[in-house]
UniProtKB/TrEMBL annotation, chains A, B:
<keyword id="KW-0238">DNA-binding</keyword>
<dbReference type="GO" id="GO:0008483">
    <property type="term" value="F:transaminase activity"/>
</dbReference>
<dbReference type="GO" id="GO:0030170">
    <property type="term" value="F:pyridoxal phosphate binding"/>
</dbReference>
<protein>
    <submittedName>
        <fullName>DNA-binding transcriptional MocR family regulator</fullName>
    </submittedName>
</protein>
<dbReference type="InterPro" id="IPR015424">
    <property type="entry name" value="PyrdxlP-dep_Trfase"/>
</dbReference>
<dbReference type="Pfam" id="PF00155">
    <property type="entry name" value="Aminotran_1_2"/>
</dbReference>
<keyword id="KW-0808">Transferase</keyword>
<dbReference type="InterPro" id="IPR015422">
    <property type="entry name" value="PyrdxlP-dep_Trfase_small"/>
</dbReference>
<dbReference type="InterPro" id="IPR015421">
    <property type="entry name" value="PyrdxlP-dep_Trfase_major"/>
</dbReference>
<dbReference type="InterPro" id="IPR050859">
    <property type="entry name" value="Class-I_PLP-dep_aminotransf"/>
</dbReference>
<dbReference type="GO" id="GO:0003677">
    <property type="term" value="F:DNA binding"/>
</dbReference>
<dbReference type="GO" id="GO:1901605">
    <property type="term" value="P:alpha-amino acid metabolic process"/>
</dbReference>
<keyword id="KW-0663">Pyridoxal phosphate</keyword>
<keyword id="KW-0032">Aminotransferase</keyword>
<feature type="domain" description="Aminotransferase class I/classII large">
    <location>
        <begin position="13"/>
        <end position="367"/>
    </location>
</feature>
<dbReference type="InterPro" id="IPR004839">
    <property type="entry name" value="Aminotransferase_I/II_large"/>
</dbReference>
Length: 378, 378
């Protein structure tokens, strides 16, 4: 610890830390109705064990959404569990894996815990630096897996361009690795135009190189813990065996409720409300950053939960100290260092998903104060 | 395949195979009401991420039930997921582990898949042969874990006696291994007197040698996928880290619904109904076995889902062939060989939990025919 820190216990905490929606933008009433509908219409399916493929009607819905036969789909207890199964299969000890730099901290941890040989590749504003990937491959690297968050990346908020999606696929085909398209945020785009999934670009049902993951955490709610994988049937079958051996079957009550919710009338309007709320929050955050932190650089995202802020290099910023000073002033952030194996001391992630609009400006004002206080100690 | 098999496609399948309740003994209406109550009373807790410890009020309820502080409890997506986390921690490659012979097939598979050195110890009608365990320990075996299903064991239906519970604990203390008390069936006892848990015998909150697992699959329903571990806080904390890294948090919607259900008025009567139905089914099964398979030996269980049947040795019974012949006659069983690393050719498991009372006698009649037909081929 470096010197005394001002504490203001009376201040209400404003959190830019957690990538989760505030409860006011979750359609609790709709979910409750969906649960009732699901128990009424399919009592045996909701209460029985089911199998590791997931709740059968939801699996079919997902297969139709992505234009693939059901054998390509496995529905899991949240998409992180899906990631974990895929990593168990492909990110074995010593296996080379490519990820973005920065990337989701739990992805890095999951890969490192399995003893994978992780290669981080620069993330640019239009996505992973594909020529850096190509150079690694030309240099002899033979990855089993490349992990990419194509839309509104966590932590940066950036989106992978169409040209780069195509180039990545080309590399995956040429060098025979699995491209893991980890896409939980895709359906909460609030501006700009959607881009095709790499799964589709690779032929959808004919795709041999893409494993696609997504989730209902962002469109329905996180506590329901429903995610899924779409990929080549042989690989999905192997992961299904892992899932059976781990938990027999995922949660049928939750998956049946999600299915009933998706079939119901409230879902489209509820999703629209989430997107509007996120658009409003990111607009306010953009404004507040320009007002209180004019020295910061960032790219305003077109969807998702996150915005990545960098302070000028060479000014001796120490994000650990900034985080501490911010906490003392009642504002929570996640330091950039959490999303990298090295570096990130002048960066941090701001999640706007859970911040009330009226708190955004005050939160950034406090953060600017914290940055000044941290710098004064340097 | 051995010779032609009679098929009767018009016959309705009677299944003694799956350890699951029939839907008619699940309180679907009560669960539906509980889901509504849970969404109404705790919308933020139900829909938010939560943490890997599980839904906080349910964790507290479980801690109170077992008389331990909450730090001893981890609520998971079903108890098999809890087993998997514990095995990841203690059944590492080469680690010696003791199990019962026969035991739950998925337990054996989970241990073998992890490369553990599995030692199966005879299961007697009053539970695992404790002096055989003692002999292994005296012979120098140093297990990290001994897995025991104390009540209405799967597949045998047997219950561990009090004297053996005490002796096992003594051995665990003396040799410093974890006694894994895997107890999903305890609350569906329909006759006889309950015995104290080894967790309690080891001092409950002060226990250092017991990790206890149970589930709501048998008392509420399987599709809700809620199980839990109770154990020493340091070990529970390690498993909590694994759970966080695997799925962030288990299902809050399911766990919140279970909690509301346990608090509601319908639970005690619903549990009573399950027990009465199981008692009726086991009574009919006992009767049918005596009538149609007088040569078979079995012990009528005092609770749970399963009954283990052995045919006389030395008569050349082949349970694989019996299973095929039974299937051809519209009756499903699980062969004894599934629950052992070797042997079991003259045994099979009958699950009575999912069989309608009116089908029990006919199912056993068909099974007796199948046994005759299989023997005729030998």
């Amino acid at each position: 610890m470096s010197g005394p820190v001002q504490t203001s216990p009376a201040t209400t905490m404003i959190s830019f830390a957690r990538g989760a929606p505030s409860t006011d933008i979750v359609d609790v009433e709709g979910l409750k109705q969906a649960a009732v509908t699901a128990f009424d219409t399919d009592p045996a399916g909701m209460t029985g064990y089911g199998t590791a493929v997931g709740y059968v009607p939801l699996r079919r819905w997902i297969a139709e959404k992505h234009g693939v036969p059901v054998e390509h789909v496995l529905v899991t207890n949240g998409s992180m569990q899906a990631d974990a199964f895929l990593f168990d299969e492909l990110a074995t000890p010593g296996a080379a894996v490519i990820t973005e730099r920065p990337t989701y901290d739990r992805t890095l941890l999951g890969l490192r815990n399995r003893g994978a040989d992780v290669h981080l590749v620069t993330l640019e504003e239009d996505g992973i630096a594909v020529e850096e990937v190509a150079a690694l491959l030309e240099g002899g690297l033979r990855p089993t897996l490349a992990h990419v968050i194509p839309n509104f990346q966590n932590p940066a908020g950036y989106t992978l361009s169409l040209a780069k999606r195509e180039r990545l696929l080309e590399l995956a085909r040429e060098h025979g690795f699995v491209l893991f398209e980890d896409d939980p945020y895709v359906d909460i785009r609030f501006s700009g135009e959607p881009l095709p999934r790499m799964l589709e670009l690779d032929g959808g049902a004919a795709s041999e190189h893409v494993v696609y993951a997504s989730s209902f955490s962002k469109t329905v709610c996180p506590g329901i813990r429903v995610g899924y994988l779409v990929g080549p049937p042989a690989l999905i079958k192997k992961i299904q065996v892992r899932a059976t051996n781990t938990y027999i079957a995922p949660n049928m009550v939750a998956q049946g409720t999600v299915y009933a919710y998706l079939q119901g009338e409230r879902f489209p309007a509820a999703l629209e409300r989430v997107k509007q709320a996120l658009a409003e929050r990111v607009g306010l955050l953009d404004q507040a950053l320009r007002a209180h932190l004019p020295q910061a650089t960032f790219r305003r995202p077109e969807g998702g939960y996150f915005l990545w802020v960098s302070l000028p290099e060479g000014e001796g910023h120490d994000v650990a100290r900034i985080t501490t000073e911010a906490a003392a002033r009642g504002v929570a952030i996640v330091p950039g260092t959490d999303f990298l194996l090295e570096g990130g001391e002048n960066s941090f992630r701001l999640a706007y998903s859970a911040v009330q609009p009226g708190d955004v400006d005050e939160g950034v004002r406090r953060l600017a104060e914290a940055i000044e206080a941290a710098r004064a100690q340097a």
